[in-house]
Amino acid sequence: MAYEPSAAAERNLRLFCTKTQISLVRNVRGAVFPGSMGERAAKAFGRRLQEALLARVPAEDLTDDDDLAEMAEVCHGLSPRGERGPGYRLLKATAADGETTVWCEVMSANHLTFSVCGTFLDFVGKTALLRAFVDALAEPLQFVSAPGLGYLTAQPTLVGTGMRIRSWMHLGGLAHFGYLNELCNAAEAKGALVELEHPDSPPPGSLIILFNRFSLGGTTAEIAGRFREFLVRVSEQETEARWRLLRDEPFVFLDILTRAKAVLKAATMMGEAEALDLLSDLRLGLTTGAATARKVDPLDPNWFDDATDRVFFRKHGRALRRKHPLPHDVDTYQPWREEALRAAWMRPLAGFALSRELIERADGQ
Amino acid sequence: MKCELCHRQDAETVLYRTKPDGKRQELYVCNACAERERAFDESRGIQVAAIDAGGDAPRREASPMGELFGRLGKMLEGLSAPGEAGDEPRCPGCGTTMEEIRAAGLIGCPQCYKTFAKPLRALFDDCQACHAYKGDPLPGEARAGAERDLERRLAEALRREDYREAKRLRAALEALRGAEGGPGDGV
Q1: Is the CB of B109 inside 8 Å of chain A's CB atoms?
Q2: Which among A32, A209, A311, B23 has most CB atoms closer than 10 A?
Q3: Which residues does chain A have within 8 Å of residue B104's beta carbon, measured at their own beta carbons?
Q4: Over its length of 365 residues, how does chain A's per-residue pLDDT go in tens digits?
Q5: Residues in chain B closer than 8 A to A149 (CB atoms)
Q6: What is the C-alpha separation between B71 and A111, in angstroms, rounded?
Q7: Which of A17, A3, A1 has its CA nearest to residue A301?
Q8: CB contact under 8 A, A146 and B136
Q9: Measured over all CA atoms, what is the biggest interatomic distance in chain A, rounded to whole angstroms?
Q10: Other beta carbons within 10 Å of A45
């Protein structure tokens, strides 16, 4: 029997899926992959590839702008700094629709990685847009491919279409009831995988990354469609978990929200994981209607990013250095994190109020 | 290059000697020295193989024993002594071994897909649902498909004696064939 997603699950997906990244990986014929290239050769090849790319696509070179490159890494899911090879280049181009940004990474694990990232839910449409962008470069750049295996990539998990879709999901309801392990198993069975930093402990902020497991055996549109179908199923489960929290455990939910609000308001020292957990609780309240806030949008894709140390110090680091000209490492010096609390973490608390319905339900319990 | 043993004749053969302790020695020698050394070393239980030294020495009339050494050396060229690091086959394109691919999780070059076809197939068993590409048309395939389609339509137009259409199709076909790039066979 064909699966039919419930309308609520489809509608709620935008609440749970904070952002999505779609990537296509390609390599150029006649060259070894970056991992096997020497440093000088990789640098020279990266420059040559960048020139070839710029000759065909108008793009902005962000390689030498450390701040922008790191922000792009954190906010758009590009290759982590530690995994970038010696010839790494980062270019920013625009797709045919005139508004979608395409990030072109030269010499990460493969010669070229093209990706789009945003809050979109039309995976198939965005995939087609990205594929059209990449296919236009296929003839001049001579992508390496084989009839039986498709596009040949350095990573065995990407051979075939070279496609990877990653979705950042905020699953506060499933995490509250301890269903994330079941979700990991279900994802694996359905051809997706869950990325967890520490598999044995709950992820900070109940934020997980889901991505497609297979890149061979289907077209890019089929992979995107199947992946989205799986996300709708996850959305259905998360909707059910949140509804259960509101219906069966209003007292617990009320406690979670008031505690989060109080700690964020009063604390002066806080680790990143704890801050993410508290912000996750607030977002859970705001997206279920159990709480309201006047000045924040819980669907902001940077809701969690702003609370992470790296983004915060990239945004406010220079100002803080001027204010506290001490020879301390900006990323670890705790009093500067205190500034972060005031600047970013207190923001959701502006006009924050609990819903009357939740309070009445909790009282009734 | 002079023979490394007699220092008089030009070197014509590379002599590989693998001693019982596993150490390998490489000597560039003339044919006469190669014959003498082979007979002497084998009497002491030392393995000897020789291959042609290449074109830097002027070719002289080779002795039958020298030819035999040459042939034997070519047969053994790809092999190495037991216990040496070079035991494992390496990709001719990038020099990566299958063990390195497993350890790093990264394939070295497109040639590796051919060199390690069998072990990679096992690797794909773990990380992919199937082994056959069923995705969007590859650049070369799309081009070949368009070419086949034009050829078929041209043949039909000629059969119908629609020469105007045939002329148009032929021009399109020539433009497609003349365009930059080739089929996407890659490896």
Answers
A1: yes
A2: A32
A3: 35
A4: 455 667 888 889 999 999 999 999 999 998 899 988 888 889 999 999 999 999 998 999 988 887 777 778 878 888 887 778 788 999 999 999 988 999 999 999 999 999 999 999 999 999 999 999 999 998 888 899 888 888 999 998 899 999 999 999 999 999 999 888 888 888 877 767 776 655 667 788 898 899 988 888 889 999 999 899 989 999 999 999 999 999 999 999 999 999 998 988 887 777 778 888 998 999 999 999 899 887 788 888 878 877 777 777 677 666 666 766 655 555 555 666 666 666 666 777 778 888 888 888 888 87
A5: 113, 131, 133
A6: 42
A7: A17
A8: no
A9: 72
A10: 22
Beta carbons of A148 and B131 less than 8 Å apart:
yes
- Which residues are CB-neighbours of B25 under 8 A, at least 6 positions away? B16, B17, B18, B19
Summarised one tens digit per residue, pLDDT across range B126-152 is: 778 777 788 787 876 667 777 788 888
- Classify B81 as helix, strand or coil: coil
Provide the whole-model pTM: 0.73
CB A87 within 8 A of CB A118: no
Are A146 and B139 an interchain contact pair (Cβ–Cβ within 8 Å)? no
Task: Tell me whether residues A32 and B108 touch, CB distance under 8 A.
Answer: yes
DSSP state, residue A345: I
Q: What is the 3-state secondary structure (H, E, C) of B2-52?
A: ECCCCCCCECCEEEEEECCCCCEEEEEECHHHHHHHHHHHHHCCCEEEEEE
> Across the interface, which of A27, A35, A219 has its CB nearest the CB of B110?
A27
Judged on CB neighbours under 10 Å (0-12, 13-18, 19+), B181 is middle
Count of all residues that appear for chain B in the document: 187
Please tell me if residue B95 touches chain A, with a CB cutoff of 8 Å: yes
A246 vs A176: CA distance, rounded Å: 12
Give the CA angle between residues A115, A120, A126 to the nearest 5°.
50
ipTM above 0.85, yes or no: no
Sorting pLDDT into bands at 50, 70 and 90, what band is B84? very low
Quick one: how far is CA B178 from the chain centroid?
Answer: 31
Contact call for B138 and A131, based on CB within 8 A? no
Query: A215 with A26: CB under 8 angstroms?
Result: no
Interface of B with A in 18-37 (CB under 8 A): none
Residue B129: which of A135, A147, A217 has the nearest Cβ?
A217
Q: Which residues of B touch A230 (CB under 8 A)?
A: none
Question: Is B146 in the A-facing interface, judged by CB distances under 8 Å?
Answer: no
